[in-house]
Design goal:
This protein is 46% helix and 24% strand. The protein is an alpha+beta fold and 534 residues long. A hairpin with a 5-residue loop joins strand 10 and strand 11 (282-291). The longest helix is centred in the N-terminal third of the chain and has 40 residues, at 145-184. The structure holds adenosine-5'-triphosphate (ATP) and magnesium ion (MG).
Length: 534
């Protein structure tokens, strides 16, 4: 074997080694292509080279690596910068126009680099041409069959590198897509490893239980999901200790309450689904978490609703029945005064039944979104207030009513029936919650350049303690005191009052004092309503 042939062989080996090293080092595709282009150019003593690759997403062949081609030459060949279009599956059709552009380039390179011939090595994947290596040579260069095969081997390696890179990209973008789906899912999602450690933890779950993903990932499941109470028979740990999941086993559903770091309690429903491989080994547990807090609250409300309503309906009905029965007794003779008194009681109880039913209807309208106002012009709040007070005055002789309205108090645009309901509730509360009697004042003010008016109802009753303030306007909420137990009420009054005032674009608030050492106890509810005539 001649010395130069040995040299060539040694070089061939070196190039092949460099290329396989580049391939196995999992370098970026562009780095692998650069190594392959270097080897190809050097091996045939070329001056410059270009690798063009197809980009199936854009339907273009693009320059993927270049060696020794002056950059200004690229800019004078628009195709090299913009790419060569092709339609999918018909890549071969584009090769002619690429070859033509390259021979054009060769002409230019001739002046700069003395290049005179171009070697073209196609990159094949099966029948598909995925790219070309172009090597620009200085002079007529001939090589034997061996060298030709070797060059094709370089091109084949390049084709493999392209294929690997594309597969990797595909897997990667699929993974990114799945990660994004998990992260943005509206349900809480977490993935556990077979040892029940958390591997992934999405944003919805993080919001639900008030823990950051970075706090949860890597931690044991039981450290992050610590049940305060459990409504199902067993949690994940107990189930796993009892052999869950068995091959073909169903999902595990666990429901209960946990405490968030800020002290709030959330009700969760968690479904654990085992992910098994073909040999039934557990790979992961996919965990879906739902926030059931609202659902639980509604269930509670439903229960309260039924108990409150049945109690509140029962009381007037049994009073009415009692008095009617008494009046009907054939053996008794009633004086006209007694008869009148009993009939008045029946009338009052029938009225309170009507009020209760009205309140329930309004509340259900609010819930179903069919609540709407029947606005009328020139409603006089002063006369509404006087009428309401008159009605309640007859029911109590220990409360004294007083009025305090400026002379120029304006008439407004409002739903008369509903504003009467607001006043009824505020005045009835003032009476109910000042059992020892005392003054009840209804007053009005004109605010903000006559843009708003306010009405206040003030009593000197038991007051509302600070720690119960937040419950006042909630549906079915009655404060926990002796009086609430003794007086009638559903706890709907202020909930509806607030809804009605806000539907008029007004606001409602209150001041209250429960401490006799800080002056007179009592409560003052105030609501504002806009005066649209101003
Ligand atoms: P309803 O109005 O449905 O007949 P209610 O009067 O109990 O029942 P709300 O008017 O909504 O319900 O009032 C809620 C709770 O707020 C009352 O049960 C009471 O505990 C408290 N509350 C309301 N007004 C006053 C007040 N003026 N003084 C003290 N506590 C009050
Ligand atoms: Mg009330």
């Amino acid at each position: 074997m001649s010395r130069s042939l040995i040299d060539i062989r040694v070089r061939q080996r070196e190039y092949l080694l460099a290329i396989s090293r580049a391939l196995s080092a999992e370098l970026e595709l562009s780095d692998v292509l650069r190594v392959i282009l270097n080897a190809s150019v050097e091996f045939v003593s070329g001056r410059a080279g270009i690798i063009v690759l197809s980009d199936p997403e854009e339907g273009l062949f693009r320059v993927a690596a270049a060696l020794g081609v002056p950059s200004e030459l690229f800019y004078s060949h628009a195709n090299l910068v913009n790419g060569f279009p092709y339609s999918l599956g018909r890549e071969k059709d584009a090769t002619a126009s690429i070859d033509e552009a390259m021979s054009h380039l060769t002409q230019h390179l001739k002046n700069d680099l003395g290049v005179s011939q171009t070697l073209i090595l196609p990159l094949h994947q099966g029948d598909l041409v995925v790219g070309m290596i172009y090597v620009f040579q200085e002079e007529q260069f001939t090589f034997g069959e061996d060298a030709g095969k070797l060059l094709q081997a370089f091109a084949d390696q390049a084709a493999i590198a392209v294929k690997n890179a594309r597969l990797y990209e595909q897997v990667n973008s699929e993974k990114q897509r799945l990660d994004a789906i998990l992260e943005n899912s509206a349900d809480g999602v977490m993935i556990l490893d077979p040892q029940l450690n958390i591997q992934s933890f999405n944003r919805a779950l993080s919001n639900m239980i008030g823990r950051k993903a970075s706090e949860a990932i890597g931690k044991p499941h039981d450290e992050i999901i610590q049940w305060l109470t459990l409504r199902t028979e067993q949690g994940l740990k107990d189930a796993s200790e009892n052999g869950w999941p068995m091959p073909g086993s169903a999902n595990l559903y666990v429901e209960g309450d946990i405490k968030k770091p800020d002290g709030d309690i959330v009700s969760l429903g968690i479904t654990y689904s085992p992910l098994l491989n073909t040999r039934h080994r557990l790979l992961n547990i996919i965990t879906n978490v739902r926030d059931l807090t609202q659902h639980r609250r509604e269930e509670e409300l439903q229960k309260t609703f039924i108990s409150v309503v049945s109690h509140e309906l029962k009381t007037p009905v049994s009073i009415i029945k009692g008095y009617a029965g008494t009046l009907k007794r054939p053996d008794a003779k009633w004086t006209p005064e007694a008869r009148h008194e009993y009939l008045s009681v029946i009338e009052d109880e029938a009225d309170s039944l009507t009020d209760l039913i009205d309140n329930l209807l309004e509340a259900s309208k609010l819930q179903s979104g069919t609540f709407s106002l029947n606005l009328k012009d020139h409603i006089s709040l002063v006369s509404l207030a006087r009428r309401t007070a008159k009605k309640f005055e007859t029911q109590s002789d220990i409360h004294e009513f007083s009025f305090n309205f400026p002379d120029n108090f304006p008439e407004i645009n409002a739903d008369e029936r509903r504003i009467t309901q607001v006043l009824n509730n505020l005045v009835s509360n003032a009476i109910k919650y000042s059992p020892k009697g005392g003054p009840v004042e209804i007053s009005g003010t004109i605010e903000d350049d006559e843009r708003f008016v306010t009405i206040s109802v003030t009593d000197h009753g038991i007051g509302i303690p600070d720690h119960q303030r937040h419950r006042i306007f909630q549906k079915f909420s009655r404060l926990d005191n002796d009086l609430s137990r003794k007086t009638e009420g559903t706890g709907l009054g202020l909930f509806l009052t607030k809804a009605i005032v806000e539907a008029h674009d007004g606001r409602i608030w209150f001041n209250s004092n429960t401490d006799p050492e800080k002056g007179l106890t009592g409560t003052s509810f105030t609501f504002s309503l806009p005066n649209i005539y101003n």
